[in-house]
Automatic annotation (TrEMBL):
Transmembrane segments: 20-40, 60-77, 98-124, 136-158, 165-191, 211-234
Keywords: Membrane, Transmembrane, Transmembrane helix
Signal peptide: none
Official protein name in the record: ABC-2 family transporter protein
Length: 244
């Protein structure tokens, strides 16, 4: 990991006009979603239930990944190809250069995710005086991580074959995020259908809330998405290193 390149890439990404505009949109969407959708609860659950928070994460994950994929397109632009041609003539290993670029993209996604999550925590504290934020750690893990790894790996794989394919992948991801696959977790990449359907069929606890129970099929599907994403990323990384 080259720290100089990492700092440069982060400055270039975070202070770009596209990132700033989409970042503001993501924050605005988070607030809007919390005060219009999540405050009512999801599928009869309390607004601060794990199911409701999963729904919030599904909603913001869509826009966060769209921003991330738009940032990924720069990795396969003509200007970037020229830069790689230049750096290939230096002592800097191409694998290290590509790894640094990818890590900068990951950090940019993480910044947006953390800011949106902090907004949600402030919402729960001020609106409901809810402070048991440790209850949301599992939803963050199962909703954000598998989808991010899958979309990242797929974007890198398609981008390594051609920037046009990556641009075509962006609207497909948007469409998939809008469709609810209630009983098909292996298709429901964003899990939006799953988290709204399951509370309607699960038994309730002592206070009348649907228990937070994840089916085996859902858990396996999340591992499959992570595995596929990692394989596609490694394949694309190897291809890009050879091209350079």
């Amino acid at each position: 990991m080259n720290m100089k390149i990492l700092k440069y890439e982060l400055k270039r990404l975070i202070f770009s006009r596209m990132f700033v505009i989409t970042f503001i949109i993501a924050l605005f969407f988070s607030v809007l979603d919390l005060y219009t959708q999540i405050i009512q609860g999801v599928s009869g659950t309390a607004p601060f239930s794990k199911w409701s928070y999963c729904k919030f994460l599904c909603d913001i994950n869509t826009i966060m990944l769209l921003i991330f994929m738009l940032s990924c397109t720069g990795l396969f632009s003509r200007n970037e190809q020229r830069v790689r041609e230049i750096t290939s003539c230096t002592s800097l290993p191409q694998k290290k250069y590509l790894a640094t670029k990818c890590f900068a993209l990951f950090i940019s996604y993480l910044i947006i995710a953390l800011c949106c999550i902090l907004i949600s925590l402030a919402f729960y504290k001020t609106t409901f005086n809810f402070r048991s934020f440790q209850n949301f750690l599992l939803p963050m893990l199962i909703i954000l991580l598998p989808t991010f790894v899958f979309v990242f790996g797929t974007s890198m794989f398609l981008g390594s074959k051609g920037q046009t394919l990556l641009y075509a992948w962006i609207p497909i991801v948007l469409i998939l995020s809008l469709i609810s696959f209630n009983k098909a977790p292996f298709i429901d990449i964003f899990a939006k259908g799953y988290v709204t359907y399951m509370p309607t069929v699960l038994p309730v606890d002592s206070i009348g809330e649907p228990v937070f129970r994840l089916s085996l099929n859902f858990i396996v599907s999340r591992f499959v998405f992570i595995l596929v994403g990692m394989v596609l990323y490694m394949t694309s990384f190897k291809r890009l290193s050879i091209k350079s």
